[in-house]
Write a structure and sequence with these properties.
Among the domains are: 153 residues, PAS domain (Beta-Lactamase); 108 residues, Beta-Lactamase, CATH 3.30.450; 121 residues, Transcription Regulator spoIIAA. β18, α14 and β19 form a beta-alpha-beta unit. α12 runs parallel beside α13. It is built from 15 helices and 19 strands. It is an alpha+beta fold. Strands 1, 2, 3, 4, 5, 6, 7, 8 and 9 form a nine-stranded antiparallel β-sheet that branches. It has a five-stranded antiparallel β-sheet with strand order 11-10-14-13-12.
């Protein structure tokens, strides 16, 4: 029976401790999940902001490089046009030799430059060969100035074409004329009355199968239109330039026009923006993005406003962080896109590490809890055996002795129900024995009870003293934990205060702070009141004394995270805040100290004196 009772009691104890441990484990798990989610959100936002700044700067830099390429083409076109607008009169060359005629009647001359004369051109076209003779040596040298230049050509108004690099007749379309040439028509007085350099749309080059964009500079002699200089840039070269820009695993750059036409993009960019690759040359510079994916429309609207932008766009059900900057000379925009999930991958890895460490810590805590459970169970086992099982055993043996005729009193060192039961047995046995012997035995029992109670009182007194000492030590530990002094940087300490402040707690924190100030030569103390919900008169006065004592040791105090309620309390109590600096939060205070090169908090802004004390909050 004793073992059954013992087993049931221990089982109840184990179940209770197990339930408490389970609740603690569930609470810790939920807290860990909340911390992880918050870490993912905060880290993701910070990382996205950092990437936005990087993308904005990077796209501007690459747009500048692209602009330099375009400007080099413009300069070449203008230089050649200046040379042809006023050709030197003293330059005379012998009539051209080696004039070949093709089966379709076109005439051409192959030298340092290639000259084509359509069958419909008259003698004036041959005169233009003499006028542009300086280009025979000039054009080949100019082409070498920029590797991005595909071709430089001079097309006269009377139909003569001089171009570099060399072109064989088979590469020139049989029906080519100046009337069918897009670049020439873009420079005519009708299309360009301002006589300014213009850029064409993407078109097929007059020689070969390449698609180009051309800088066209019209030439006028004595206010008469004489022709155009055309500098071609290869779209394939622009695409190769974009391929060199790498952004993560699936990030990509692209060139787009203001009206949403895709000029050039990497293969990844084509698959994302169009859902396919551009396989035919005829499609280059002709595909409209707003027709391929409606999700790009917000980006195109911003580009039409000629704005720099960084925003998140959803394309094919995937979020991309896209940065765009205009290239004004040609009406293009350079766009760089990075998937948001790739940006968040680093944050997820970090939070996974945090989760793993926290899980290990939680398991360690669980093991410690199990060890404590076993220790408590053992202690309870010993206590139950002493307080319950041993008295029951004693009573059982006493009843057996009385049944056998032994009328000796039962010795029971407790004054509880067991003691009362033993006393009843003793009363019964004393009534059966002689009166004198009963009185003697009763006196002996009383003396024994007094001694036992005295011993119990001494033990209780000792336990009380031990409990008071443990409570005092626990209180001191709680004061240290709830008011930790944290070094921030050299010469700067942070004292975060959490919860309700009492005079004893404030005095303890002040004593610890002053010792640290004197020992570490601190010049700035950050008094963090973020976790203080309310402030009474005694605590406010104690804080003011803390500030004054710190100032006597040469440390300036910055109050951080003052809530509106605490601020109203300080003002209502009439505290002197003239020499105390404040900050909205701990990060703002630390940033200000770092920006001022680690100088003391006296360089921070303090509240202005007067009857109205405005606490200054800085934007975090």
């Amino acid at each position: 029976m004793h073992r059954n009772l013992r087993t049931r009691l221990l089982t109840l104890v184990f179940l209770g401790i197990a339930c408490i441990a389970l609740v603690n484990l569930l609470t810790s798990g939920l807290s860990l999940q909340r911390v992880r989610n918050r870490a993912i959100t905060n880290s993701g936002q910070a990382l996205q902001q950092e990437n936005e700044q990087y993308l904005r700067q990077f796209v501007k830099t690459q747009a500048t490089v692209t602009t330099q390429v375009l400007e080099s083409a413009q300069q070449i076109a203008q230089t050649v046009a200046d040379a042809l607008s006023d050709p030197p009169a003293d330059v005379t060359l012998p009539p051209p030799t080696g004039v070949f005629t093709t089966t379709d009647g076109r005439r051409y001359i192959q030298a340092a430059t290639t000259i084509f004369i359509p069958p419909t051109s008259g003698p004036a076209a041959f005169d233009e060969i003499q006028t542009s003779a300086t280009l025979e040596t000039f054009l080949p040298a100019v082409v070498q100035l920029s590797p991005a230049i595909l071709r430089v050509s001079y097309i006269s108004a009377n139909g003569m074409l001089r171009t570099v690099p060399a072109v064989v007749p088979v590469n020139l379309a049989a029906d080519w004329t100046i009337e069918s040439d897009l670049a020439f028509q873009a420079g005519t007085p009708r299309a360009n009355p301002q006589k300014a350099l213009v850029w064409t749309a993407v078109h097929r080059a007059f020689a070969g199968t390449e698609y180009v964009i051309s800088a066209v500079q019209p030439i006028y002699r004595a206010e008469q239109f004489a022709g155009v200089v055309v500098v071609d840039l290869s779209i394939e070269d622009l695409t190769s330039f974009l391929e060199q820009l790498k952004f993560g695993a699936t990030g990509f750059p692209a060139l787009m026009t203001d009206d949403g036409v895709l000029v050039a993009a990497t293969e990844i960019g084509q698959r994302v923006l169009l859902g396919r690759l551009i396989v035919s040359r005829e499609e280059r510079g002709q595909v409209r993005l707003d027709q391929a994916d409606p999700g790009i429309e917000p980006l195109l609207v911003s580009m039409r406003q000629n704005q720099d932008l960084v925003e998140t766009i959803t394309i094919q059900e995937r979020d991309y962080l896209m940065a765009s900057t205009p290239i004004e000379d040609v009406g293009w925009n350079l766009v760089i896109a990075i998937p948001v999930d790739e940006i968040m991958a680093t944050t997820l890895r970090t939070t996974d590490d945090i989760t793993r460490i926290a899980t290990q810590t939680q398991l360690l805590g669980l093991m410690v809890a199990l060890a404590m459970t076993l220790a408590i169970a053992l202690a309870l086992h010993l206590l139950l055996r002493r307080q319950l099982l041993n008295p029951l055993t004693t009573l059982t043996r006493a009843t057996q002795a009385i049944a056998a005729g032994d009328l000796r009193p039962i010795s029971m060192p407790y004054n509880d129900e067991m003691g009362q039961l033993a006393s009843s047995f003793n009363t019964m046995t004393s009534a059966l024995s002689e009166s004198r012997a009963a009185i003697l035995r009763q006196n002996q029992d009383l003396e024994q009870v007094v001694q036992e109670r005295t011993a119990d009182l001494q033990q209780s007194f000792q336990r009380t003293e031990s409990a008071l000492a443990a409570q005092q030590e626990l209180l001191q530990t709680l004061n240290q934990v709830s008011s930790p002094i944290i070094p921030v940087i050299e010469g700067v300490l942070a004292l975060p205060l959490i919860g309700q402040l009492s005079a004893e707690r404030t005095q303890f924190a002040t004593q610890q702070l002053l010792e640290r100030i004197a020992r570490e030569r601190v010049h700035t103390v950050l008094l963090d009141l973020t976790g203080v919900p309310v402030l009474d008169t005694a605590a406010a006065e104690a804080l003011q004394q803390t500030v004054a004592a710190s100032s006597l040791l040469g440390a300036h105090t910055v109050m951080v995270g003052i809530s509106p309620e605490v601020a109203q309390t300080m003002v209502a109590l009439g505290l002197d805040l003239h020499d105390i600096a404040t900050a909205a939060d701990l990060r703002s205070a630390i940033r200000q100290i770092i920006q001022r090169g680690g100088r003391s908090a006296s360089s921070l802004q303090a509240p202005s004196p007067g009857p109205k004390r405005d606490i200054i909050y800085e934007q975090g």
